[in-house]
Amino acid sequence: MLLQVLIRYFIHGTESDEELTTLSNVAVDTMFLLIKPLGELLTRLPVGPELPGKMAGPSFEMYRAGNILPHRYGAWTVIHERLLELATYCDRLIKQPGAPQELAAVGANARQLAATLAQPLNAMAPNTH
Length: 129
Hints:
Helices cover 63% and strands 0% of the residues. It is mostly helical. It has one domain (2-124).
């Protein structure tokens, strides 16, 4: 999701200066409000009982392609949906026994970032009437 925001910012289409500022703010906030707490959390989690004393860490492996989405409304919609997916996933994980409580804040932050995109996204929605 962060890569999609950065790609959209640097290889933008018809975004206004205000929309580019929003993308920039969401990218930076994503780094501090989502990636940093998740990275810190991962380094405190044990790998498992088969490796006592060994801690996990982020793999930086990508499971989704960072494709350029050419249409402004479609690109913003995908980014918005991914943030909401992350929030929902955190909500589900936090219900698991022993789940790290930090996930609640990460989910809330993802939801807030999605809300930041919602107003410009709604303004650019195609008129279907």
